[in-house]
Amino acid sequence: MEISFFTLSIFCFSGVYLLPIGKNVTSYGEEITTNPTEGDIKLLKEQVSALTQTVLANEKKIADLTVLNADKLLTQQDQTETGHDIRTLNSDVIGFTAVLKEHAIDLPTGSTIVYDNVYYNAGNAYDTSTGVFTCPRSGLYLFYINVEPFDESLPAAIAILINGSYRVDAVAERYDVGHDSTGGNMMVEHLQEGDRVWVETYEHDNQDLYKGFTSFSGVLIRST
């Protein structure tokens, strides 16, 4: 009599357990299948029980992580009048983008530009009432400004200031009626906690700035 062995595969989530089942083959080709022993069944039950406990433990960990991540992820603040969502990420992220909601008219040189339409303000460090970004954490920051004149006959010039000191400026002047012209600039600088950054008109009086196209953005690249 020749004897061959087959296996009964038990699939349970991420585990595969094999239960041997003997199959006796006679010289006449007849097959006689034997049942698994009590020991095999007991072992399989123990394995399934252990796997079930593992699955339940993992499900609890997933549930705990879901609650934790929900607390850290986006929390929606009030919507702006334009319908844009202002969202704040967890405290590891600092950054903002704001534009003019309406045209700014007849601004003298040295006027602080208050960008009152905020698209993004992670960390709430940009103040829409003053136009000032107050550094909440020391680190390397990147800032970007863009400007477009509203009056076709007057240039527009703005500059980034840090604690009252000029850094970089951007200038735009329409070269022809009906043709738009924008100017932009960016800078990278290390800031200390509490440093203040804002944008002012520069060089020219009576400036008219175009809403939407005149913008101010900043982001923390790396904390130090």
Describe this protein with a few key phrases:
Jelly Rolls, 5-stranded antiparallel beta sheet, 1 helix, elongated
> What form results from the Cα inertia axes?
elongated
Structural category:
alpha+beta
SSE pattern: EEEHEEEEEEEEEEEEEE
Strand content: 35-45%
Please state the CA-atom Rg, rounded to the nearest Å: 34 Å
Biggest sheet statistics: 5 strands, antiparallel
Could you say how many structural domains there are in total? 2
Q: What is the CATH architecture descriptor of the largest domain?
A: Sandwich
Number of strands: 17
Query: Spans with pLDDT under 50 lasting ≥5 residues?
Result: 1-22, 25-29, 73-89
The number of helical runs is 1
Q: How much helix, percentage-wise, in residues? A: 10-25%
What this model shows, in words?
With 224 residues, this protein is an alpha+beta fold. It has two domains: 2-72; 75-223, Jelly Rolls (Sandwich), CATH 2.60.120. It is 16% helix and 45% strand. A five-stranded antiparallel sheet has the order 8-6-17-11-14, with no helix packed on it. Strands 9-10-15-12-13 form a five-stranded antiparallel sheet, with no helix packed on it. A hairpin with a 2-residue loop joins strand 1 (2-12) and strand 2 (15-25).
